[in-house]
Request: fold
Amino acid sequence: MRKVSVIIPTMAGREELLKKLLSTVSDEYEKVIVDDPSLLLAAKRNKGTTWASGEYFLFVDDDNYLEPGAIEAALDLASQIGVGVVGFMACYDDKPHLIADGGSMRNYLTGFTTGLNTNGFWLRALRGGPYEVDEIANAFMMHSELFYELQGFDEKNFPIDLDEADFCKRVKNKGLKVMMCPAARCYHKSQTYSHIPDFRRPLNAYFHGRNRIIYHALRYGVYLCFYMPVFVGFYSLSLLWRRKPLMIFHFLKGVFDGIFCRRKNKYQSR
Reply:
């Protein structure tokens, strides 16, 4: 059995990104590439685990690449008692000294999230050492037995967007920690983070609206009455300010389907 299986969901047109990522993963680790256009992100990740044989699973999106020693640093932390998931510190590809994603904290009642160390200096985070968060994204590691015990990602309710948040919440419900490891650094090809929401594709706009409603309404019915209108209004005005009226349509369609818990939709096969 390999120590680590690196599971990489990818899609057509991202061959160069995938090639760069693979060049930063040592041959001692199993590489599992999932390119299935009929599946969305959570389903691709789940499918990858059916081919993987590693003791630990490392999920890495194909628009990231790893720094030497990152996997080993994450393994050291993941093997500690009480640790369930270890997130890699994602720095901007074009500004490697700044953090693009350092994990986040979520208020489960209001739905508001706070990014930790976002746009901060990586060296400062490294000096502070590992720290606990509510959820992670992009690149993260866990023991394969924990993944199987939790039955993987919920690809029905959260096929893309909030799939990691849902998984991390279930990990925390078991009394295990979700930790960020600054010494496990990767580089993420993303735009500089902004507090004003934006979406690259109608797919993302739809599922963000739908999944946010489902995720919080499943836990707190009061969210629909008090905090959902704030969420919908803020995102709609932000997209209007960005001059993306079409994205507002897809976003509101997602919100509507989320309220009525609709699982099947035209976006599912994209």
